[in-house]
Write a structure and sequence with these properties.
By secondary structure, the chain is an alpha/beta fold. The chain is globular and about 55 Å long. The model has no long low-confidence stretch (mean pLDDT about 90).
């Protein structure tokens, strides 16, 4: 039997950390699923101006949070969630081929500042994927494309190259390094995804590129791709004042709920989401 946590917090930034800190202080049995460093956005900030009592850059802020997390005994489980599924009173969270279970979930994954590629949302589940491990084997012997946001995901591109006949890679960073002979790195980025029932080609500046699928390996997948049936407006999750979503037991906090994209707002929402998740669990227990 897999362990069932009371609350799973999905994300790596300030909202996720604040929610986890609140859950820890309330003695809740939590899972914090994310990556170290509190998010690239924070670490690369030149100066943090909107957080009370702190003066400095993002690296200093991240270091201060890390010291506090260590003092408070906060535990981070490293992983990037690729699916969250409501299963009648509990949730299944998948990350890098591992399954986790929780009775409530706080989604604090942030948002991608860049816009979606034309056709990306329309072809989700029909040739567009955000999980190499989940869907790579579907493209055995086929040509595929990958848009990759950082070298952290280069290993996943190599994994895809083990299935596909050819992998066309578009990088959002400089000097990528790949080893598989069937990986081709392109300059620039695709302009659009086109096809019929499924992805058939990419539109590039220099012409068309026939592919059977395209993977987006980036820090933040759209919330609608992570959670089926989740109500969203553009890149943001629709939430009520208590940060609950249209799915019972699922809450959202931070940039993923909308502007302003500020650390102080994210921290406050993380605290509210944690309190609301605990209230939800108590109400569910009474009803049960």
């Amino acid at each position: 039997m897999n362990k069932i946590y009371e609350v799973a917090v999905v994300g790596s930034g300030i909202a996720a950390y604040s929610a986890t800190l609140s859950l820890k202080s309330r003695k809740a049995d939590y899972l914090w699923l994310g990556t170290k460093g509190f998010g690239e956005k924070l670490r690369l900030s030149e100066y943090v101006r909107n957080y009370p009592s702190f003066t400095g850059d993002g690296k200093a802020f991240s270091a201060a949070l890390a010291r506090q997390a260590e003092t408070e005994g906060i535990v981070l489980t490293e992983g990037r969630a690729d699916g969250i599924y409501a299963m009648g009173g509990q949730f299944l969270i998948t990350a890098n081929g591992v399954e986790y279970y929780a009775r409530a979930v706080i989604l604090a994954t942030g948002v991608e500042t860049a816009g979606n590629l034309k056709g990306e949302r329309e072809f989700l589940g029909r040739g567009v994927s955000y999980c190499a491990v989940c869907d790579g084997a579907l493209y055995r012997g086929k040509e595929i494309a990958v848009v990759i946001s950082s070298r952290d995901y280069e290993e996943e591109v190599e994994y895809l190259a083990g299935f596909a006949s050819a992998v066309h890679v578009f990088c959002l960073y400089k000097e990528p390094s790949f080893h598989a002979g069937n990986i081709r790195v392109h300059k620039g980025l695709p302009l659009a995804i086109e096809g019929g029932m499924r992805v058939e080609k990419l539109i590039l500046k220099e012409g068309e590129l026939p592919v059977s699928g395209i993977f987006f390996l980036k820090n933040v997948a759209p919330p609608s791709a992570l959670v089926g049936g989740l109500a969203t407006e553009g890149a943001h999750v629709v939430v009520k004042r208590d940060l609950s979503t249209n799915i019972d037991g699922l809450f959202a906090a931070g940039d993923v709920t909308g502007r302003p994209y500020q650390y102080i707002k994210a921290a406050g929402e993380g605290c509210v989401a944690a309190d609301s998740a605990i209230a939800y669990l108590r109400a569910s227990k009474r009803e049960g």
